[in-house]
UniProtKB/TrEMBL annotation:
Keyword Plastid: no
UniProt catalytic activity: Endohydrolysis of (1->4)-beta-D-glucosidic linkages in cellulose, lichenin and cereal beta-D-glucans
Signal peptide coordinates: 1-20
InterPro entries xrefs: 6-hairpin_glycosidase_sf, 6hp_glycosidase-like_sf, Glyco_hydro_9, Glyco_hydro_9_Asp/Glu_AS
Protein name, as recorded: Endoglucanase
Superkingdom: Eukaryota
Glycoside hydrolase family domain residues: 23-479
Single Gene Ontology MF annotation: cellulase activity
Keyword tags: Carbohydrate metabolism, Cellulose degradation, Glycosidase, Hydrolase, Polysaccharide degradation, Signal
The organism's taxonomic lineage, starting at the top: Eukaryota, Viridiplantae, Streptophyta, Embryophyta, Tracheophyta
EC number assigned by the record: 3.2.1.4
Residues of the active site: D457, E466
């Protein structure tokens, strides 16, 4: 056995013996995080009270109302592409694992989703246009100021027939469709509105094909932050898959069957995140083959199986890198986005396999649902503190956690404690300060350690210390699973 395999085996045994995390507390905090990311007029029941109203004139440049939604990370821009993906993943978390959540947290998750969907509905409500971003990122990133004090340009970016943005509009369709399932029982009228707008958004994305970052005017605003590096084709299939699941309309099944090869369904790419939907698409669509025996979709299960095998260290097909401490690692920064999204896929696929008593053939070994659950548990427990540094990577969870996250609102004094205006450059001293952030952004999960498991808690190192909404969104589902199944995957057979 290779030394690193032995290390992972030993780590697995140590995790097996230590399953004492308070997943319910972590779940509550992972959802609370979204309140600290809110843009717009805050409601009376706002729990993150260090935040105040912000960006109340968003959209005025274009003569529309684009208030609300979320700031995606530690800055004050509303990027539509990652916000839509965040919404899809929050909704998928509830669709898949909401029944396992404590009632109060299920309600909080629904509120977090609705804060996003109310905004996304505004972005698709104007014929011929879809609004995809508010805020000039270059000017925003030149400042270190509270969202409540923003005085940088709130530039409005939109796509149209002449300037298409299939990836962001199709992701918006996916988000609205997935969210429609969340509200189906408790608010059927809202659910219907979400689904109807999802259909219209998808038709727009499919009719006017193109990547939004291919347009010079849009590229200046979305790149290099949320460029479409992977092409828009996967989002069209992803949007169609969510519309199929939410509506059960056969036309979307036909779309997947008829357009899969053209749109790259056979590109077995082992990635999943705000830009690349392939692995998530394969897991989502494979449900129809596994449970519904739609034979034409068998290739999606084959690709999902192949992806799962890359995550199992004992598999001969393993290609995913792990740190010495056992954390899944992909170079490029903000690594925790990969950790949480892939952990969610592991648990979701395990759920599908369990319902059909199936396993995954990884060549030399057969991998069952319990093995997938164990892999996910190792990753989630690492985030919560089972790592070489013995620290949680979620703010407010555990005895030791990041205190200097790369986050403007968290690092600057709140409006309630310092009502005086803090101008663009006046926040620099707070940015450079070695002191902990005055407003802990509870529930925020940082980008995470490097490939050596070291996390320095350095505000300036944004690749490691900046939280994002799309790190937390799939984590909500994973934590919900472990609330109900704290020892899942740990039974030795």
């Amino acid at each position: 056995m290779k030394p690193w395999c032995l290390l992972l085996l030993l780590l697995g045994l140590s995790w097996t013996q230590a399953s004492g995390h308070d997943y319910r507390d972590a779940l509550a905090k992972s959802i609370l995080f979204f309140e600290g990311q809110r843009s717009g007029k805050l409601p009376p029941e706002q729990r993150a009270q260090w935040r105040g109203d912000s960006a109340l004139s968003d959209g005025s440049e274009a003569g529309v109302d684009l208030t609300g939604g979320y700031y995606d990370a530690g800055d004050n821009v509303k990027f539509g592409f990652p916000m839509a993906f965040t919404t899809t993943m929050l909704s998928w978390s509830v669709v898949e694992f909401g029944e396992l959540m404590p009632a109060e947290e299920l309600q909080n998750a629904a509120v977090a989703i609705r804060w996003a969907t109310d905004y996304l509905l505004k972005t698709v409500s104007h014929p011929g246009l879809v609004f995809v971003q508010v805020g000039n990122p270059v000017r925003d990133h030149s400042c270190w100021e509270r969202p409540e004090d923003m005085d940088t340009a709130r530039t409005v970016y939109s796509v149209s027939a002449e300037r298409p943005g299939s990836e962001v509009v199709a992701e918006t369709a996916a988000a609205l469709a997935a969210a429609s399932m969340v509200f189906r029982d408790d608010d059927p009228d809202y659910s219907r509105e979400l689904l109807e707008n999802a259909v219209r958004a998808f038709e727009f994305a499919d009719t006017y094909k193109g990547a939004y970052s291919d347009d010079p005017g849009l590229k200046a605003g979305v790149c290099p932050f949320y460029c479409d590096f992977d092409g828009y084709q996967d989002e069209l299939l992803w949007g169609a898959a969510w519309l199929r699941r939410a509506s059960q309309n056969d036309s979307f099944l036909s779309y997947i069957q008829n357009n899969g090869k053209t749109l790259g369904a056979d590109d077995n790419i082992n990635e999943f995140g705000w830009d690349n939907k392939h692995a998530g698409l394969n897991v989502l669509v494979s449900k129809e083959f596994i449970e519904g025996q739609v034979l034409s979709l068998e290739s999606y299960k084959d690709f999902a199986d192949s992806f799962m095998c890359t995550l199992i260290p004992e598999s001969s097909s393993s290609h995913i890198q792990y740190t010495p401490g056992g954390l899944l690692y992909k170079p490029g920064g903000s690594n925790m986005q990969h950790v949480t999204s892939i952990s969610f896929l592991l648990l979701t696929y395990a759920k599908y396999l369990s319902k059909s008593s199936q396993t995954v053939n990884c060549g030399s070994i057969q991998v069952g649902p319990a093995s997938l659950q164990l892999q996910a548990k190792k990753q989630i427990d690492y985030i919560l503190g089972d790592n070489p540094m013995k620290m949680s990577h979620m703010v407010g969870y555990g005895d030791r956690y990041p205190e200097r996250i790369h986050h403007r609102a968290s690092s600057l004094p709140s409006v309630s404690s310092h009502p005086q205006f803090i101008a663009c450059k006046d926040g620099s001293d707070y940015y450079k300060s070695p002191d902990p952030n005055p407003n802990p952004q509870i529930g925020a999960v940082v980008g995470g350690p490097g490939d050596d498991d070291i996390y320095e808690d350095d505000r300036a190192d944004f690749r490691k210390s900046e939280p994002t909404t799309y790190i937390n969104a799939p984590l909500v589902g994973a934590l919900a699973y472990f609330v109900a199944n704290p020892d899942a995957g740990l039974v030795l057979t």
